[in-house]
Amino acid sequence: MRGGEHEGTVHLRVRYSETDQMGIVYHANYLVWCEIGRTELMRELGYAYADVERAGIRLAVAEACVRYGQAARYDDALRVVARVTAAQSRAISFGYEIHREGEQPALLATASTRLVAIDERGTPRRLPPELLERFRAGSSQE
Amino acid sequence: MRGGEHEGTVHLRVRYSETDQMGIVYHANYLVWCEIGRTELMRELGYAYADVERAGIRLAVAEACVRYGQAARYDDALRVVARVTAAQSRAISFGYEIHREGEQPALLATASTRLVAIDERGTPRRLPPELLERFRAGSSQE
Amino acid sequence: MRGGEHEGTVHLRVRYSETDQMGIVYHANYLVWCEIGRTELMRELGYAYADVERAGIRLAVAEACVRYGQAARYDDALRVVARVTAAQSRAISFGYEIHREGEQPALLATASTRLVAIDERGTPRRLPPELLERFRAGSSQE
Amino acid sequence: MRGGEHEGTVHLRVRYSETDQMGIVYHANYLVWCEIGRTELMRELGYAYADVERAGIRLAVAEACVRYGQAARYDDALRVVARVTAAQSRAISFGYEIHREGEQPALLATASTRLVAIDERGTPRRLPPELLERFRAGSSQE
After folding, report:
1. Given C31, C53, C62, which is nearest A28 (Cβ)?
2. Of A66, C56, C131, D4, whose CB is crowded by the most CB atoms within 10 A?
3. What tens digit of pLDDT does each residue of B104-123 get?
4. How many C-beta atoms lie closer than 10 Å to residue A122's C-beta?
5. CA distance, residue C118 to nearest chain A CA (Å)
6. Which residues pair with D58 in a beta bridge?
7. What ipTM was reported for this prediction?
């Protein structure tokens, strides 16, 4: 993932509630972190997700994949990086990296999600043009 | 807790996702189980919570207390029992017991919650009279 | 997915805690349901996951993908079906279907996960031969 | 709650995953936030909870109560304050306040928990004297 202005980065500390009895973070929680990164990316693009919902549009997850490497553990300091990888009129794709920071930094997981725009009844909709424009400007597509 | 027709009982198996690295169930999840028991109790009283929401009323939790005894563990078979302990025009109180079933049955926890009726904007409302009537009929108050 | 004895099937009802403010189930929770299906499949293969952990082996999720169709909603009755799709000495792959039951039955989502065997310190391990044998017998691979 | 050095304070932003279909935060999540505040308090007292576990002691929640006022909502900026309210050789009590920050600041909820020290098998234990001392020094008891 390129560095640059078109990324959303958040810093998190692993919560006790996110661990399971294997002593590591329960795998579904990585999707929660991805979403926090995505929220931050949208805020940085100038279009907070809360604003999107106020405009009557929801972005529903249509597909999500996570590849897990080393496990995240309780109290780990994490850095989640999100970026737009594709922006179409009805669907946006995001890529994510989850890094452990501190003394033993490592890339712990990568993930991707595809989101589709729907209205309050669940009917597919086009993204607001202004939002789409910002996603395209923020995308790493060439 | 008296036995009888005015209880909602559900049977659950502890999920892996509900454990934490202490090797037991994370404490906040007991409130989730209480809510499932409450949902079942309302269904048995003939007034599913989904119906309540369709009528424009939400029941928001105003107070919740849990006392934990022996810990619930992964794959334990549980029985959650809920009953109405007080029914007022704007607030309903529930009591709960969480039991482990199987070879080593035990009462694992007790809990109580008080719920208040609000509308979609969060404004306090009276409970629909029919619902209140059912809660009162279903209550163990004398 | 073929019908047959080599599937694990569980019936769930969507919990209120699993919804989000979009009015549908939060997407990460589908992975929790997949895991419950996987647990049931292992139980049916005669090798409960709790037994696997007692033998010092953990099955850690190395990869997970979910494709979401129609959304699951509060109080929906679901059927989760899991089966083994590949069984190797160090890694097992599973496929999943999440169906809504009742008046408007539908396939809501499909998913896949790949799990690797590790010991208590996180070191990769071979699966116990007996468990691998059962996974292979239970697999839909030819 | 007195201001002062004996508090643990954390700043959180409400996650989408923490909301439910009522459009507000699901009530059980407040206990998660309390725990994050407690973790921070312990870190500030110089005894991180991760260190406590490394010493073979777990602090298990024996009792938890939450009083909910105005609801927390998606993307709200929160401040969670935790302090020790009682410190005994086998049990520690904590009090919590959850505040919304920003343009419309408000105290959203208060909570209390009592934790007991147990070893890895769940047997009650005394707290390590050094930890107890720090809790006592950090307590607001007179």
Report:
1. C31
2. A66
3. 999 999 999 999 999 988 89
4. 15
5. 10
6. D118
7. 0.92
